[in-house]
Design brief:
Number of domains: 1
Oligomer: single chain
Order of helices and strands: EEEHHHHHEHHH
Number of helices: 8
Distance between the termini: 59 Å
Number of strands: 4
Shape: globular
Structural class: mainly alpha
Length: 276
């Protein structure tokens, strides 16, 4: 028996007639909660790299631009290039949805590199300092990922494939067959579970002393979780399956992430051991 739900308006509320969407609130909440956790993780006695309040503010600014620009451009390039070529102005309408995690990840990496270049740390290695900052961001990133997937579910976008499972969901007024609530699966794995894993590894192990190790594990775990969840998610209509045996664009990009993450993690361990 499927779960039948009334559609939730994508608009949470309006301010002076201006609609505020759940999608936007998810991003704002992700940034705010992530910033709060970063302040805790970068205390002098609990971090491999100390960031002052001003540095945190500057990093926050860099990250906002990195996530939004990278996420949007990634979606345009990986998922819907032909549509945006015909209607370029649509690229700027981010409130309509359409963000790519893989593009956002590239944007965060670029933003972090630019941020570190402007700072003066006691360790003058820009690469090591960038990896240390990225390790911190890896811990907080699942917060935004989880909230973003919940917003996807509210918007009834990137929904799952048809199913006879009791977990299947039918929205009144929409398709009359049950579908996997795949955004909620992703919110659970890519958000909650991923956060618990990375936060525990950062706080309870010595991996935070290996610059790049936590970042590499983010790529590995996220990639594995995303590949799994894509088994339930309906492929993007404009792309469909990339192969006859059912490979999706999300799985392809996530598979690359897993390989890159394993390489980064291995190099981080070897670099640390060579410096002992």
């Amino acid at each position: 028996m499927a779960i039948v739900l009334n559609p939730i308006s994508p608009v949470a509320f309006s301010v002076f007639g201006v609609p505020v969407r759940w999608y936007a609130l998810a991003y704002i909440a992700g940034f705010v909660l992530g910033f709060w956790l970063l302040k805790i993780l970068t205390r002098k006695d609990d971090s491999e790299i100390y960031l002052t309040r001003k540095q945190l503010d500057d990093l926050f600014t860099f990250l906002v631009f990195g996530v939004i620009l990278g996420g949007r451009l990634g979606y345009v390039l990986f998922y819907n290039l032909s549509v945006f070529l015909h209607n370029p102005l649509e690229i700027f309408m981010v409130w309509h949805g359409g963000m790519s995690f893989h593009g956002g990840l590239v944007g965060v990496i670029v933003a972090t590199l630019l941020f570190v270049r402007k700072q003066r740390f006691s360790d003058h290695s820009a690469i090591r300092n960038s990896l240390r900052v990225l390790d911190l961001l890896a811990v907080v990133a699942p917060i935004g990922l989880g909230l973003g997937r919940i917003a996807n579910f509210i918007n009834m976008e990137v929904m799952g494939r048809p199913t006879n499972s009791p977990l299947g969901v039918v929205f009144r007024g929409g398709p009359d067959f049950p579908r996997h609530p795949s955004p909620l699966y992703e919110a659970a794995l890519e958000g909650l579970v991923l956060f618990v894993i990375l936060f525990t590894l950062y706080k309870k192990t010595n991996l935070r002393r290996y610059p790049g190790a936590i970042s590499g594990l983010l790529c590995v775990f996220y990639g594995v979780f995303r590949i799994f969840c894509e088994q339930f998610r309906q492929p993007d209509a404009q792309i469909g399956f990339l192969t006859s045996w059912g490979l999706t664009m999300g799985q392809l990009l996530s598979g690359i992430m897993v390989v890159v993450g394993l390489i980064i993690f291995t190099i981080a361990l070897k670099k640390h051991k060579s410096q002992i």
